[in-house]
Amino acid sequence: MDEIKILITFNRTENYVGNDDEGESEELLKREYDKAQLKKVSSSSRISHEVSHPTWDVVSGRATIIIADINGELKEFALAGELRDINKVQILFANQLIGTYSSVEAQYDLKSGECRLTCRDNLHAWDTISYVGIPHNLTNNAYSFFTFLKDTTKTLTTTDDDVILENLKQKDFLESIKLPNGFLRPQTLRNAWRQLCEITLSYIYKDIDGMIKFVTSN
Question: Are residues 182 and 76 in the same domain?
Answer without folding.
Answer: no
